[in-house]
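Colleagues,

For the teaching module next term, I've prepared a clean inverse folding example: a structure given as tokens, and then the sequence designed for it. I'd like students to try predicting residues themselves before seeing the answer, so please don't circulate the second half yet.
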């Protein structure tokens, strides 16, 4: 087994999944605004320390995705966050994309940027102790959207990124996210997701990416957030597993879903249903949740140091629930 395959397997080990704590500074600002916490470096550091030092979080969490600022920060005891996580038996990961830019011919759509200086940045993250990376492509469903060009460009960049990561012994999380925003049906989401995954794997293979050394981070196949008829967790699970079986090669070690705007409850329920019916799937089906692991924790914390212990308990409760769901045991 290659080293990359070994790390990928650890990331989706039974009972475990990934915490996406890689919100950029503006994005964490949006989360903080909801709990009326100022978006300054001290608060961002303090909040991440709360998460990463939650006692024994490594029972449920295999890896944490960080943002550039975060991976350079230290806990109050002076240790780097990478060291703090290592002690918890948790792997460190880093988001390496640099956000998105509008497509020239279709300005409503975006393509992810950050490739130009990526070869120079990756060795620095390796020296800091990172074991894996994340890059997110964003696909919107709308009238005449997505365009073939948007799907293609995002897939090509995901593949280039993935190859560069593997050349640096980093496991790439390949995240082609079809957004749930909009009034589209679950069937439409299935059709678009299937196409996006097909094109993504064509490009990954073309680029010579070792599929046993990646983690795929897809959206679930789900109704648009403003669609009148919302599919049930069972329907979401059925169409999601069908779509993945049709598109994802068996060599891929693991799939770790994003939560994408599902509530904590729904994201646990859908993951549970998926794992209940996925008995004959060749890959592990885990989670790489951001909002669906943090929403109630942020509320419990509310920026107050006297709430840290309660907030950590809240985080561990949600992590445990998601870990059970990840094995279909919720
Ligand atoms: P959500 O689970 O909040 O969608 O975040 C996951 C993520 O990393 C998106 O890039």
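(Answer key — instructors only)
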């Amino acid at each position: 087994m290659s080293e990359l395959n070994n790390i990928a397997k650890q990331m989706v080990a039974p009972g475990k999944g990934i915490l996406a704590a890689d919100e950029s500074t503006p994005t964490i600002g949006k989360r903080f605004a909801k709990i009326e916490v100022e978006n300054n470096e001290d608060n961002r550091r303090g909040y991440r320390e709360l998460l990463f030092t939650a006692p024994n979080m490594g029972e449920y969490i295999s890896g944490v995705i960080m943002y550039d600022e975060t991976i350079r920060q230290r806990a109050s005891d002076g240790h780097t966050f990478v060291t703090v996580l290592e002690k918890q038996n948790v792997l460190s990961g880093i988001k390496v994309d640099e956000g998105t830019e509008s497509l020239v011919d279709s300005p409503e759509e975006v393509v992810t940027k950050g490739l130009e200086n990526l070869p120079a940045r990756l060795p620095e993250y390796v020296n800091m102790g990172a074991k894996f990376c994340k890059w997110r492509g964003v696909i919107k469903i709308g009238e005449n959207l997505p365009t073939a060009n948007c799907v293609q460009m995002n897939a090509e960049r995901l593949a280039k990124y993935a190859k560069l990561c593997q050349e640096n012994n980093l496991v790439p999380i390949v995240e082609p996210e079809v957004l749930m925003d909009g009034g589209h049906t679950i069937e439409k989401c299935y059709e678009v997701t299937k196409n996006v995954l097909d094109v993504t794997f064509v490009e990954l293979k073309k680029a010579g990416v070792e599929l046993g050394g990646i983690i795929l981070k897809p959206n679930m196949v789900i109704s648009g957030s403003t669609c009148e008829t919302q599919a049930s967790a069972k329907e979401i699970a059925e169409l999601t597993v069908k779509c993945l079986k049709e598109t994802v090669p068996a060599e891929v070690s693991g799939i770790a879903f994003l939560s994408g705007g599902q509530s904590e409850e729904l994201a646990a329920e859908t993951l549970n249903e998926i794992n209940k019916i996925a008995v004959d799937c060749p890959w592990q089906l885990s989670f790489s949740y951001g909002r669906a692991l943090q929403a109630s924790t942020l509320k419990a914390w509310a920026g107050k140091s006297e709430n840290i212990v309660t907030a950590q308990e809240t985080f561990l409760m949600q992590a445990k629930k998601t870990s059970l769901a990840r094995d279909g045991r919720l």
